[in-house]
Amino acid sequence: MADIQINPIDPVKTEAVNFEEPVVDDSEPSPMVVVEELLNKSEEKITSKEARIDQNVIIETPVFSKTEWKEGDETIDLPSTPDKESIGAVNLAPNVSLTDSEESRRWANVLAAGLQMTSYNNAFVPTIEDPEAEFHQGVPFNGAALAGAHPRFKPIEDENIKGERGILRFMSHLGLGTIFQAPLWHTGIWITFKAPSEGELLELQRQLIADKISFGRMSYGMVFSNTSSYITDRLISFAFDHIYDTTLKSDEAQKIDLKTIVSSHDIPAVVWGLLCSIYPRGFQYRRACASDPEKCNHIVEERLNLSKILWTNTKALTPWQVTHMSDRRANSKNLEAVKRYKEELLKCQNRKVEINKVSGKNMYLTLKIPTIAEYIEAGHRWIGEIVSMVNNALGIDANDKDRNDYIIKQGQATAMRQYMHWVDSIEFSSNKIEDKTTLEGILDILSADDIVRNEFMDEVSKYINETSIAVIGIPVYDCPKCNSTQESPLVLPAHTNIIPLDIYQTFFALTVQKLEKIQLR
Ligand SMILES: [Zn+2]
Fold first, then answer.
1. CA distance 22 to 324
2. 290 CA to middle of ligand 1, Å?
3. Order of strands across the sheet with 299-304?
4. CB-based burial label for 35 (10 Å; 0-12, 13-18, 19+)
5. Every domain of the chain and the residues it spans
6. Residues in CB range of 82: below 8 A, 6 or more apart
7. Do residues 421 and 374 lie in contact, with contact meaning Cβ atoms separated by under 8 Å?
8. CA of 44 to the centre of ligand 1 (A)
9. What spacing in Å lies between the alpha carbon of 90 and ligand 1's midpoint?
10. 148 C-alpha to ligand 1 centroid (Å)
């Protein structure tokens, strides 16, 4: 790929990292996650081409594994390269008829489906390309790595167990969905999720279909934008309904809605944590070689170790924050400590940006990272206004196509409102606006100005990318068929590049297959 820089990398100095495995002791009324002795994974190796590095990402434990392929198991097509490069590969080969043979048809389908899984508009690519950042699968602490993990249940014998406790232990015994503890690095807590039942997943899908408002993939995939606030609301509520425990003190957690303290930057980690509880062994994936379609249509078929694909910028955390996160026991942290954690997150502070400088009618916007609750509320207000406008203009009986066309037009007319929840205040001359309704009105007006709108969108997207300290993504790979460097195995840890994934798309692609299987029974 012409776009990929080949930079020399430092020889790998770090020792292989120990990923600690929390242990859950469910014998007490309030289960405690106990941090125990650490697993040493240093013998494990992956194969990878030598450095083609422009990101500071270090892989310490394998993400992909070769296992027996099971036809009919949930399978995801993953992107082979970042968005634009795969498209480039297809465009570079105009002579290849994609439907020439069964093989090339299959290749084209896998490549196209894989592209759907990349983050929209290359979101988070600038995050991992930040030269000051260093992304790891686990945050080092006292010789171990803090990372999401499936807690092991404390061994019990000759016990008569019942209720949820009995079910979770039995599911774990069968290798089915179980519990998973995920770190929320932008918030400063751990959440342990328990796998939802198939019936609950069916009900989630029914709700999502019932409140579906079509904005198309264009805006639907846009990261943290209001067009997906309904989906976010449903998914996050669903995930929070499946919390086993959190590190937040339970008397405090009961008083507040978690959505009001969890950063919207942690939405992907929440959805990922829930998915890890459903897929403790990861899932099958396919990847189509995109290096030269005229020469190679190879498809890799392996298994993705889902729990190893959250990458955290270890340089963004202070020693106090790491110590704070090293305590993974349930009910161990009060709100005061979580507040301090957020305040110490220097990368995630408010930012003042100047807009419309050239015209002389400049203004200053202060951007902030919203909580999940702020995000959902801003989205519901905006979509609610649009829907009532549609009803006024077209009447409630208008057909779906007319309604959707109108919704999209209204959405475009007030495009800046998609990011309302990222705006803290606007200053102009010596005045300041903080009132939410007034800010919404101003964003509606400003949306009509092409220059202001574009500058605003750019600044918000930059702010989102630059304030993210944890990203879900998969490493790049080398096609085993057309790339001979694959033959020399590389010992971990090693540098790699990662492709950010759209975790919503991944969640829906997996659960839809699960539900289709139920219907075939
Ligand atoms: Zn190939």
1. 16
2. 7
3. 64-65, 299-304, 283-288, 75-77
4. middle
5. 6-195+242-345+469-519, 351-465
6. 118, 122, 125, 499
7. yes
8. 25
9. 13
10. 32
Q: What is the C-alpha to C-alpha distance for residues 375 and 38, in angstroms, rounded to an integer?
A: 38
Helix (H, G, I), strand (E, B) or coil at 476: coil
User: Residue for token digits 């002389």?
Assistant: 360
CA–centroid distance, residue 136 to ligand 1 (Å) = 28
Q: Residue 128's closest CA among 505, 475, 504?
A: 475
Between the CA of 351 and the centroid of ligand 1 the distance, in Å, is: 44
User: Helix, strand, coil shares of the chain as percentages rounded to 5?
Assistant: 45, 20, 35
Kindly give, in sequence order, each residue whose CB lies less than 8 Å from that of residue 307, ignoring residues fewer than 6 positions away: 147, 148, 149, 150, 180, 276, 280, 282
Rounded Cα distance between 475 and 308, Å, is 11
Provide φ and ψ at 329, rounded to 5°.
Answer: -70, 145
Q: Which two tokens stand for residue 464?
A: 């989102």
Ion ligand 1: residues, CB within 5 A, are 289, 296, 298, 479, 481-482
Q: Report the separation in Å between the CA atom of 101 and the middle of ligand 1, taken as the mean of its atom positions.
A: 17
Rounded to the nearest whole angstrom, what is the distance from the C-alpha of residue 78 to the centroid of ligand 1? 15
Give distance in angstroms: CA of 496 to centre of ligand 1: 19
* Residue closest to 239 by CA, chosen among 46, 511, 519, 446: 511
Per-residue confidence of the chain (521 residues) as pLDDT tens digits? Answer: 333 333 333 333 334 456 666 666 665 433 222 222 222 222 222 223 333 447 899 999 999 998 889 998 999 999 987 766 666 666 655 555 655 688 888 888 898 888 888 887 788 989 999 999 999 999 999 999 999 999 888 888 999 999 888 888 888 888 787 899 999 999 999 999 999 999 999 999 888 777 655 443 333 334 456 667 888 899 999 999 999 999 999 777 777 899 999 999 999 999 999 999 999 999 999 999 888 777 888 999 999 999 999 999 999 999 999 999 999 999 999 999 999 999 999 999 999 999 998 888 999 999 999 999 999 999 889 888 887 888 888 887 777 778 778 877 888 888 899 899 999 999 999 999 999 999 999 999 999 999 999 999 999 999 999 999 999 999 988 888 887 554 445 677 888 889 999 998 899 899 889 888 888 88
- 278: tokens are 């459903």
Cβ-in-10-Å burial (0-12, 13-18, 19+) of 335 comes to: middle
Ligand 1 midpoint to CA 484 (Å): 10
Give 353's strand partners. Answer: 365
Give the helix/strand (H/E) hosting 179.
strand 179-184
Strands 139-141 and 179-184: unpaired
- The identity of residue 247, as a single letter, is T
